[in-house]
Amino acid sequence: MSSSAAVPGKPPAVSPGSRRLALVGGSLGNLVEWYDWFVYASFAIYFADSFFPGDNPTTKLLNTAGIFAVGFLMRPVGGWILGRAADRHGRKSALTLTVTLMSVAALLIAVAPTYGQAGYFGALVLLLARLLQGLSIGGEYAASATYLTEASARDRRGLGSSFQYVSMTCGQLLGLAILITLQHTLTTDQLEGWGWRIPFVLGALFALVVFWLRRRLTETEAFTEESGADDRGDSARGTLRTLWQHRREAGLVMALTLGGTVAYYTYTTYLTKYLIGSAGMAKSTATLVSFTALAVFALIQPFAGLLSDRIGRRPLLITFAVGCTVGTYPIMTALGSASSYWSALGLSLLALVIVTGYTSINAAVKAELFPTRVRALGVALPYAVANALFGGTAEYVALWFKDSGHEKVFFWYVSGCALVSLVTYVLMPDTRNTALSRAEAEAEAGTRAGAPASSAEAVR
């Protein structure tokens, strides 16, 4: 037995191979979770008629977008319950539970009866499934953000955490790929009649595979170290009382999330509907634009994460916020009159490159704000609240402004949210050099000449 293994609370050193395996395992699970979450938005244009009667297509999309937004209301609940579980029982167990809940939710949507079969009962089943998905994803974000950040080497946390949005985006790409395939193999009537159920059946099956995978993940060094420590009992881990002691950091998470989440959902889930409803593009062309733009977006996340490991987190966050504040109105206005695939793709890529300044590193920034004993809950709850209020409602707000004849007001709304986050980024400290574990703090103290810092002082 190694000496490190014999010391209570001090886990054995983690090999680079183990770190890579943890990142791959965590990312693949995250991919399927977000596939199930986003596929609802991708296929809403086909199943809106099945659950809501009427002749106004915008009203039908408003109803489905409303249910999409309601799912976000459960995210704070999921963030609290599953974030607490991740801090008390481990990141691995929380990740396994979230994917189980998501599998059940996907299956419910797949078998939900239409309005013609059961009236509004089908919409009720849809609502229940979205609430369950909201519960799951509320915990998934925090558990995966914490897991990917803690599982990365200290000088590669930006790179490691960037894979959260790589996997999130790949989950959405998988949904869009299935959509494009079905668009070319089924007729519109078949898609609207029964074809829209296929991706939800697949989602349930994917989740079962990931359940098997996540049960084989290893726990992170930071959590193992914290749970094995003797100087502090586990009663303080993952509690609201402990989170309250870090309320300033929780407030920072909400403020720095505001602009990023609104911009992200605007240029991802809402983009296809905007190109169809405002630019007048064919559904298949708009879907292809979104797919290509998101593929490039996923590829550039690790490069931005790696850049943050070299120059810090704040420069990227500030660049995003400035670009989004001043660029949203002209980009969205130009997209509304885009007449070709290439013009729409170029504008979409410009927007997503700007958003990358937030998406590539936000997981690391949030995790670096909190100590291990409340890290998952600290990331989960304030992030979920910000998403429930702003991210989940972005599409609904956009459609509401469109329906009322003031579509361009939404562009200013996105810019205003980014401006609030910009002020936060300018005032907050850079978190790149934060020690996430006692082992990191002790190593840092050991390299500091004449700096007698205790691990308790160095670990936030």
Question: If you had to describe this structure to a student in words, what would you say it looks like?
Answer:
Helix 2 packs antiparallel against helix 10 (198-214), helix 3 runs antiparallel to helix 19 and helix 3 (57-73) runs antiparallel to helix 20 (394-403). Mean pLDDT is 83; it is low at 1-11 and 452-460. This protein is an all-alpha fold and 460 residues long. It is 77% helix and 0% strand. The protein contains 23 helices and no strands. The longest helix is centred in the N-terminal third of the chain and has 36 residues, at 16-51.
Write the layout of secondary structure elements.
Blueprint: H1 3-6, H2 16-51, H3 57-73, H4 75-89, H5 91-111, H6 115-118, H7 121-150, H8 157-185, H9 188-193, H10 198-214, H11 221-227, H12 240-244, H13 247-267, H14 271-277, H15 283-311, H16 314-336, H17 341-359, H18 362-367, H19 375-391, H20 394-403, H21 409-427, H22 438-447, H23 455-458
Concise account of the structure shown:
It contains 23 helices and no strands. The chain has helices at residues 3-6, 16-51, 57-73, 75-89, 91-111, 115-118, 121-150, 157-185, 188-193, 198-214, 221-227, 240-244, 247-267, 271-277, 283-311, 314-336, 341-359, 362-367, 375-391, 394-403, 409-427, 438-447, 455-458. Helix 2 (16-51) packs across helix 3, helix 5 (91-111) packs antiparallel against helix 10 (198-214) and helix 14 (271-277) runs antiparallel to helix 15 (283-311).
